[in-house]
TrEMBL record:
GO terms for cellular component: extracellular region. It comes from the Eukaryota. Coiled coil: none annotated. Belongs to the RNase T2 family. Keywords: Disulfide bond, Endonuclease, Hydrolase, Lyase, Nuclease, Signal. The keyword Repressor does not apply. This is Uncharacterized protein. The active site is at residues 43, 97, 101. GO terms for biological process: RNA catabolic process. It comes from Kingdonia uniflora. PANTHER family: RIBONUCLEASE 3 (PTHR11240:SF75), RIBONUCLEASE T2 (PTHR11240). One of its GO terms (molecular function) is ribonuclease T2 activity. The keyword Signal applies.
Amino acid sequence: GVVLAQDFDFFYFVQQWPGSYCDTKKSCCYPTTGKPDADFGIHGLWPNYKDGSYPSNCDPDTPFDPSKISDLKSTMQSSWPTLACPSGNGMTFWSHEWVKHGTCSESILNQHDYFDSALNLKKQVDLLNILQSAGINPDGGFYSLRAITNAITQATGYAPGIECNIDESGNSQLYQIYLCVDTSGTNFIKCPLLPSGKCSSSIEFPSF
Ligand code: 5GP
Ligand code: 5GP
Ligand code: 5GP
């Protein structure tokens, strides 16, 4: 087939705090494989442009093929669990991520390597451990956005993007953490652009 040129500048590697996904008006549903660990889970690895825009749904001819990630399935279930309702085994979430985002970097990472890269990135940076080592715990308490940002910056060398959502009582809470990765999908880099994350200066870190 036609060889497509790489057409993006970097990846956002996005992880979600399950307690914050679930602690919303929409609530959540645990996967059919059971309640995930109280740890950050992968949301996605998203090709992006330096101006903040991004490509999506790049190749209808390469649909998600579960057989290509059979060796990764159990690691995916623990590191990339789905929390949307209705409960699922993850395949719908992973398929969505591949079709919308993964197909936009497929000139560099095939489907297997796309998911494998994300799993390896998660292993390289243990966000929960970084935060807990700085005294920032998922205990329902409020922490300064600055303290959270500083802890991750000091541990990784790069400033993260922090995204918040709103809990059922209207509090701003720690929802997603964005790190930037080079186009090979292997090395963390300084973010060319940080997403604007809608956080208050003091945010809740709910338990899960
Ligand atoms: P939301 O509107 O919940 O922030 O984002 C909805 C979806 O848009 C995300 O799940 C993701 O697929 C996509 N998206 C949001 N922001 C970005 C971004 O900065 N870069 C990329 N590549 N995708 C994004
Ligand atoms: P995005 O388009 O923002 O990359 O991905 C969000 C889509 O994946 C939504 O359609 C959402 O329903 C689905 N999804 C399934 N499981 C999850 C989950 O655990 N977290 C998030 N953020 N989205 C999920
Ligand atoms: P999507 O179209 O991406 O499924 O969902 C749109 C938005 O609603 C995303 O921000 C996604 O995270 C959120 N969302 C979708 N399904 C659920 C759910 O079951 N629970 C929660 N808390 N959020 C959801």
